[in-house]
Every structure is written in structure tokens, then in C-alpha cells.
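S1.2 Input.
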Amino acid sequence: MKARQTREVRIGNVTIGANYPIAVQSMTATKTQDIAATIRQVELLEAAGADVIRIAIDTPKDVTALAEVRAARPNANLVIDLQENYRLAERVAPFVQKLRYNPGHLYHIERDKPVSEKVAYLVDVARAHGCAIRIGVNAGSVDPEKLDKYPKHDSISPMLDSALEHCLMLDDLGFNQYVVSLKDSDPNKVIDANIRFAEARPDVPLHLGVTEAGMPPDGIIKTRVAFEQLITRGIGDTLRVSLTLPFENKGDEITVGRQILKDIASGRFRSVARFEQKGMNIISCPSCSRVENEAFIDLAQNVREMTTYAKEHDITIAVMGCRVNGPGETDDADLGMWCAPTYVNLKRGPESLGHYTYDEILGRLRVELDKLIDEKRGVLV
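S1.3 Output.
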């Protein structure tokens, strides 16, 4: 394993980067306003050994709930996921150790205001409260101006461009307590994006993860491949294993992450140099507080069971649990679903096929899947 070269960044009582151990983190899956359930999730993750725990905040009511979670778990290192309301930063900062924002989301909010001004606001808040920052770039929600600069088949360069641009913004503001993440559901793209970023900015700590890795065991395999290829190159200072799991089992993300680190340190590798996806590929996001109906978790499981008859076909189906990342992060799948409170939106690539109830969606999905299989076979439909 190559030694890491990144600078140190402090997140509460945890320091990442340089020669510090790679920190393992996860995210609560409950609705933040369900205070008892969210506290329970934090307790489960702490018991599993989480170094850092992320919570999503979308509304002022979430901020009120967060204050109660903090009071109940005073020693937890909490990260806040600001999502589409970055202006809540100053209200949540007193309760957390790190702020996470998505450059793509900043682009869409207050269009008449320069992104650099929004970033300056976040830095001012972080500096005033001693918080670190994560620049979280996701393949499915990249700034559209970045996407337009590159060929459609190149999804890595827009992510890299966005991450490096935001690093420069923070550097120019004299703020160096930040980390970067570049995530995709394809482990090979995660590997390539992080290698390229580390070459350009070897000083910046990286948070590793394969987003929407899906359900065990496939989700673990995808994640392990990416982590083994990156960590052995000295890339990665904190990580998350993103799995679609029942709420009571979220601690498994921490357990799996620590096992992967232990195996790497012991020289036990289970991956090949590249992850070669063959057959049916089901992408599903890890449940989080943005999920508006817990039926999403059962739906992901049911999709996997229903599609076993087509397991030999090279088809990707995405099952996403919310309106924030779901619409964009299903575009590259052959068939995609993103879940609302009472219905599921069905897509074929970027094209909408309508929305269906949770009882109707599996039947409709099978119809579209059969059409797709017939087309790939050259059958006239």
C-alpha cells in the first residue's frame, strides 16, 4: 500500500488524512423529524463503530429535530447533508462537526447569485463554528454547465471539473478544512475519477464511496472492488459503504467497511483489477431521511427477486428512493424508478413512462423489461 499524502482535516474528535486511520461513516435512514427513530439510528451506528454519522436536513423542522438528536447523542461526530437548502447551514452548524454540500445543487438554487457567493457563505458559517466541509460531487447531479463541456459518454470529466473548481473556491477563501467525494454507481468510474483527482490534488483528503451500490452481496462486491483499487494506491481518507438495508441493519454498513479495511491491511483481496458487470445489474440507493416511503426498501428487494428470470441479460435497473437524486441518477439506467410518497415514477433512460402505485409498479416494470429484452434479441415488438 502506498502512503497517503493528504493534509489533515478534523471532524469533531476524529482527524482524517495524512497518517491517521481511514475513518468509517454512514448516514441515518430515518426521517429526521422522527426524532426517536433518528436517535435510534445514531445509536446503532455508534454501536457499530461509526466515526462520523451523516443526517440530511431539508427544512427548518429538520433543524429543530437535529437539535434534539444532538442533545441525546452529545458525543457523536455529526455531518449535515444540506441538500437543496444551503441557507440552513448557519442554523445547523452549532450542532454538527461537518457540512456537506453538492455543487450541482448549489447551481440550481438562487440562479441569479454566483455559486462562488454561495460557497463563501458556507465557508463563513463553517469557519465561525469550527466545522469541516465536504464537497460532495455525484454523477447524477452535476452542474449542467459542466456536463455541456464534455461528450455525453464522458461522465467523469464533468465531476472532476466541478470538484476541482470548488476546491479552488475554498482555497481562495483561505479555508483548507475540507474533503472531496466523487461518487458513481459504477465502481470503475469511482476508481478512475478518484485516481484522476488525487493526481491533480494530492493534498486534498478524499471520502470514498460507490453510490447506490445496492443490496448485499452485490453492493458489497462493487464497493470492495473500488476500495481495494484505491486504498492500495494511497487514495482515500474516509469511506462509506452505501447499501440498501432495513433500518435496523444500517450498522452493517460500518461493519462491512471495517472488514474491507481489515482485509486490505492484511493483504486479503477479493477483487480483480476491474469490475466487470455481466448480466442483470440492479442499482439501488442506501435508504436515508430523504426517502418518502419506506416501501422503497421492499420494492428494491422485490425488483431483484422479480428479475431473476432475466439475470443473464446485460440490463441495468435503478431503484431510487427520493426526488432529490432519483430523477437524475436514473437517467443512465436502461429502466429506472424513483419513489414518491404514494407512487413510483418509471423511466426508460431519461424518458418518463409515467407513474404507478407501489402495487402496480412491479407488473409495469416487467412489461417494460420484457420489451427491452425482446429489442435486444432483435424481436419486433
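S1.4 Remarks. The two ends are 53 Å apart (CA to CA).
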